[in-house]
Amino acid sequence: MTNELSDKLPSAENIRLFRSKIIRWFNKNKRDYPWRETRDPFKVLIAEMMLRRTKAEQVKVVYDRLFTEYPDVEAMAKAGSEKLEQILYPLGLKWRTPAFGSVVREVKEKYQCRVPDTRKELTALSGVGEYVAGAVLSIAYGKKEWIVDSNIVRLFKRYFGIKTSKEGRREKHVVDMAKIYASGSNPRKANLAILDFAALICTPRKPRCEECPLRSNCNYALSCSK
Predict the structure, then answer these.
(1) Whether the Cβ atoms of residue 114 and residue 136 lie closer than 8 Å to each other
(2) Which of 85, 203, 218, 221 is most buried (CB neighbours < 10 A)?
(3) For the segment 52-69, what is each residue's pLDDT rounded down to a tens digit?
(4) Which of the residues are catalytic?
(5) Domains of the chain with CATH codes
(6) Residue 169: pLDDT band by 50, 70, 90 thresholds?
(7) Residues 192, 26: contact at Cβ < 8 Å?
């Protein structure tokens, strides 16, 4: 592997090797959150919507309170907007309350309280984009579905030496890499693993290269060592 940025898609073999090392790291270092203890698609969907532009530790307390009071679609659909706004207030971003209300109503009315299990149906819900859809499909339903956010783009770019724009998460070669990454066994674990690895090891500033199990083949680490 060179330390020059490339437009080429890494080989499937290299992506699988990358994946196996990250999962091995995850088995010893994974983060524990309540939304990871459930396979309930509705709870995963709402958690992922809460996590947008918000730290997981902030979400944890709000998640517990929200689902204690409104444990399922039926209950949350009956909640008043003022009550939801009061619970969600610590997370900031005022768009969340109306977005939650809309998505809950849609799941109840269009899908009889069952969160849909296809990317097309999920992304048609209010406030649900490609990332949230992929997270629900892989984490709750165990489907081999991809996720891409800015942290994953950063990790791909550093390790594989690929070129990306500022909107790298929308670029075809990045999405294609994520699809290959999620195509192996246990996509739920694989996607959770890459999220934790990007958050704890391959951080935006001062990545912890000395602790990284990928450093021997990482373009970024190799370039820094010269």
Answers:
(1) no
(2) 218
(3) 888 899 999 999 999 999
(4) 48, 131, 149
(5) 12-31+145-224 (1.10.1670.10), 34-140 (1.10.340.30)
(6) confident
(7) yes
